[in-house]
Amino acid sequence: NAAYIAANPTSLFALSTFASEVGDLPVADLDAKVATFDTVAAYANNEMLKEVKETVALIKSLQPGQKAPDFVQNDPDGKPVKFSDIYSKNKLTMVDFWASWCGPCRAFNPDLVKIYKKYHKKGFEILGVSHDRDYDAWVKGIKDDKLTWPQVSDLKFWDNEVGRMYYVRYIPQNIFVDQTGKIVGRQIDKPEVDKFIGDFLGK
Q1: How far, in whole angstroms, is CA 12 from its chain's centroid?
Q2: Would you state the pLDDT for residue 1?
């Protein structure tokens, strides 16, 4: 497949491969990739290429240094929670994309609870955005894992509107913003989260 794409870089197969891998490629390479297909007249009105371009624009808008999109979703009590109301009161806020049915998310939660206790008083907050679809399972997950930070969900599973806004295709996943809502980190690996927060708050 790689050899075929190398020989036929503007083939439909190459385009569909790019479309499926766009989220995993280095951001610096995306524009050049798009430009390759833009030179092909046959793709002038191609829907797949149009979607890829929209995805590339979205991914670029979520990189460190960009302003995080604001959102409102309801907490388990049905009360709306606004993202900017939370980050504006804290030095660093982590949006934690997770779900009660997600094994790796649940396995990481005990570590996250420890991290929260360690840094919360220093100006660190978490906002959990759940990709659950079952209300009772979601609430039980919060309770069982002793998650004390704000939690929201629209219970739309993978169609969670905030997840779509932030191009979330796997969980757990995170994005970090400073007090102005500027993105300072995205998709920080689980083992690196503690150090990332410590380094940021130590500044």
Answers
A1: 29
A2: 82
pLDDT digit string, tens, across residues 114-159: 999 999 999 999 999 999 999 999 999 999 999 999 999 999 999 9
Beta carbons of 59 and 167 less than 8 angstroms apart = yes
pTM value is 0.91
- Burial per residue of 22-59, b for 16 or more beta-carbon CB atoms within 10 angstroms, e otherwise: beeeeeeebeebbeebeeeeebeeeeebeebbebbebb
- What is the CB neighbour count within 10 angstroms for residue 67? 11
Q: What is the pLDDT of residues 167-178, one digit of tens each?
A: 999 999 999 999
The answer, yes or no, to whether the previous bond of 172 is cis (omega within 30 of 0) is yes
CA 41 – CA 38 distance, rounded (Å): 7
Q: For residues 171 and 46, what is the distance between their CA atoms, to the nearest angstrom?
A: 30
Residues 6+ apart with CB under 8 A from 8: 14
CA–CA gap between residue 118 and residue 170 (Å, rounded): 27
Q: Give me the residue label for tokens 């690196």.
A: 192
Across the chain, mean pLDDT equals: 95
- Find the range with the poorest average confidence among 12-26, 87-101, 124-138, 175-189: 12-26
- DSSP state string for 112-141: HHHHHHHHGGGTEEEEEEE--S-HHHHHHH
Q: Do 19 and 52 contact (CB within 8 A), yes or no?
A: yes
What is the torsion angle, in degrees rounded to the nearest 10, for the CA atoms of residue 195, residue 185, residue 88 and residue 143? -60
